[in-house]
Amino acid sequence: MTSPPPIRPALLEARALAFYRQDEPVFGPLDFSLAEGEIALVEGDNGSGKTTLLRILAGLLHVEEGELRWRGDTWQRDAHLGDILFLGHHLGLKGDLSARENLAVATGLYGRRDGLAAADALRDIGLAGYEDEPVRRLSAGQKKRAALVRLLLLPATLWLLDEPYANLDRTGIELVNGLLSRHAARGGAALVTSHGAVSFLGGEPRRIRMHA
Amino acid sequence: MSRPPLAAACAAVLRRDLVLAWRRRGDIAMPVLYALIVATLFPFALGPEEALLQRIAGGVVLVTVLLAMLLALDAMFRGDIEDGSLEQLVLAPQPLALMLGMKVLAHWITTALPLIVIAPLLAGMLHLPGAAMPVLLLALLLATPLLSLLGAILVALTAGTRRSGMLLALMLLPLCVPVVIFAAGAVSAAQQGLPWLAPVAWLGAALALALVLAPLACAAALRIALDA
Predict the structure, then answer these.
(1) Where are the domains of chain B?
(2) Which of B207, B94, B226 is nearest to B157 (CA)?
């Protein structure tokens, strides 16, 4: 008989999480947990609260009802700021700056993982030759890549990606899937929203279903 | 995981805003041109009588510079809110108040500093005596950052609302009044050969207070604006 491995608390755990906007329920109550190395797909129709959930977990919105725990402790926004990387509908890119300059601002604020140079990251994400072009001149998919390049460099444990596949071509989608699986292999976790129209990671990921 | 040093984060924010302003140089020129036009029109409207112009010169330059600053105030956080940069700034593992302080500093450098540079020209056009010129510049050096900081609080407070320009102007007016009174008071005292240190000291005290408190207020207000 071997003793069971010690149970590590989940990275992120939500209990009866709910959100209201002017007393109208946006979603919830919602229960889920996310362990290290786990990628979960947040599914739901338009308006079911996927973005709201991600904004709450990022710390942009208050937890109105329910409980959030981070590694077993009560979740406090300021304590986990560097651990979480949020990529929303607004990409947080300055149109007048190049992809390289935008990335430099992000690494200045969030720090960076060791091992990869900014130029290599930009090449890996598929922006070779466009590093110094102002972002406003790039196509929608290239803009998305200029935002996604943060995933390669910034040192966060939990990725909150709101529609990361939007505007991306097939190779771009595979690129994001590759980033996600490497992140999971490193022990990172991610929540990804999607309409479900893309082939997500090929296999069967965890799914969190949102109900309005 | 290592958090980036604070100095690097401050430098990143400051550099980004300065580079952005430089890439849109036309926007920097706007307040300067506005101030130039307003100050040029006064002698035409009031007549070229030197004694009259001398008497109003300090006040006209001050009011012109402060109003020219208002033109650009509205845009302080707007772009960042629209493109999501503010979300990234709020979520960064850095003290938000300090990062916003850097944004206000960048804003002051790009809007107020060019106005201070042309202020002697404007004052000279209105025959301000040379002896009062250093006092005018000192008053501007204290009054413009004070206005930037006060304005930043109000811009942050009205950030969530649409068409906030009108509301902003109404809210800023009562805050401008003491700034103008002390700054103009110092200049006119210097013109009359009276001691001018007291009003300047008041401006300095208000600036010290605003330097500490305004970024904190901005941070709180912008967090609320994003929460809505």
Answers:
(1) 6-227
(2) B226
Model's pTM, two decimal places?
Answer: 0.90
Q: Output the six-digit token pair for B110.
A: 């790009």
Contacting residues of A for B79, CB less than 8 Å apart: 94
State residue A2's pLDDT score. Answer: 54
Do strands A39-43 and A206-209 pair parallel, antiparallel, or not at all (unpaired)? parallel
Chain A nearest-CA distance from B47, in A, is 45
What's the pLDDT tens digit per position in B126-166? 999 988 999 999 999 999 999 999 999 999 998 877 777 78
Residue B13 near residue A105 (C-beta atoms within 8 A): yes
Q: Taking phi first (over 0 means left), then psi (-120 to 50 degrees means alpha), and beta for anything else, what does residue B148 get?
A: alpha
Kindly list the residues from chain A whose CB atom is less than 8 angstroms away from the CB atom of residue B23.
96-97, 134
Q: Is a pLDDT exceeding 90 seen at residue B183?
A: yes
- Name the CATH architecture for the domain at A12-198: 3-Layer(aba) Sandwich (3.40)
A88 touches chain B (CB under 8 A): yes
